[in-house]
Amino acid sequence: MTDQQLSSTMIEARGLSKFFGDFVAIENISFSIPKGQIVAFLGPNGAGKSTTLRILTGFMGASTGSAFLAGLNVSDRRIEASGKLGYLPENGPLYDDMTPLESLKFFGEARGLEEKLLARRIEFVTDQCALQAVLEKPIDKLSRGYRQRVGLAQALLHDPEVLIMDEPTAGLDPNQIRDFRSNIKKLGETKTILLSTHILQEVTAVAERVLMIHEGKLVFDGLPADLIKEGSLDETFYKLTNYGRDGVAVNAGEGL
Relative to the CA of 211, which of 14, 35, 172, 195 has its CA 20 to 30 Å away? Predict the structure, then answer.
C-alpha cells in the first residue's frame, strides 16, 4: 500500500480473529476503507458482524490481528482513535430519564467539548437529526425512530471523521427507515461510513461497496452491482452463505 493510500485509509482491519474458547467468532478478516466511502457490512445473523465492529471501535480486543481508525492502531491509541469515531451500536445505550438535550450535553461534556463549541454542535446535530420536536421530552417516551435519531446525534456530536453503525435501521418502520437511509447518504458526503446490516435492501439503498461475512469469514468484497450479476440479490446472498434457492448447501464461490 502506498503512502497516499495509507493517508486516505480511514478504517482498516488486518487479519482480525476473535476466539471465545473453542468458538471462532471471526477468522482472519482483512479490509480497508478509504476516506469518504459508504460501505455495507452484510451477513446473516450470527455471522460475526457485531464482533468485527466491536473490535474496530475498540470496545473489544482481537485475539489476533490489528484494527486501525484514521491510521491509528485502536488497541495502542484507543482514546485518540475514539476522537475520530462516531459509533452507533445496535440498541445503543440511552439514559431514559434524560431528555435528548440533557443527554447531548452530558456526552459532550464527557468528551471534553468546550461550552460554546458544545452549544454549536448540539444545535447542528439537533437540526441534522431532526430532533427539534422532542429535544426536551424524556427519552423513555420517544418512539424507536426518535431514539435512533438521538443515538445518531450522540455519535455525531464531536464531528467524527468515521461513522460505524450496527444494524441502524433494525426495528424502524418503513417511513423511519427511509428517513434514516436518506440521512446516511447525506452524512456520506463528508464522512467515511461502515454500517452493519442483514437487510439486503440496505445495500442497494445506501452503499457504494459491500463487505459480506459468513461464519466469521469474509466471503465478498466488491460493488453492489457485482452482487446481482448472476441473479437477484437474494439469490447471491443465499449462494455466498451456502444456501441455494431450495435450502441446499452449495459452494460459496459456485456460479459467481
Answer: 172
Query: What CA–CA distances, in Å, run from 71 to 27, 161, 217?
Result: 22, 12, 23
Q: What is the predicted pLDDT for the residue at 67?
A: 97
Per the structure block, which three cell numbers stand in for 155? 455519535
Q: CA 149 to CA 53: how far, in whole Å?
A: 20
Average pLDDT per block of 10 residues along the chain, 256 residues long: 57 97 96 95 90 94 96 93 92 88 96 95 94 95 91 94 90 85 89 89 88 93 83 76 47 39
Task: Give the C-alpha distances (Å, rounded to integers) separating 85 from 80, 109, 208, 241.
Answer: 9, 16, 20, 30
Name the grid cell of 71: 491510521
Cβ atoms within 10 A of the Cβ of 223, count?
12
Question: CA-CA distances (angstroms) from residue 166 to 13, 37, 90, 97, 115?
Answer: 16, 17, 5, 24, 30
Please tell me what DSSP assigns to residue 71. T
Ordered alpha helix ranges (H), 84-207: 100-110, 115-128, 144-156, 174-187, 200-206
Q: How many CB atoms lie within 10 A of CB 247?
A: 7
Helix (H, G, I), strand (E, B) or coil at 74: coil
Residue 253 is predicted with a pLDDT of 40
According to DSSP, the residues that pair with 64 across neighbouring strands are 17
Give pLDDT, residue 177.
86
Cα gap 236→1, rounded to integer Å: 30
Q: Are 66 and 56 in contact (CB under 8 A)?
A: no
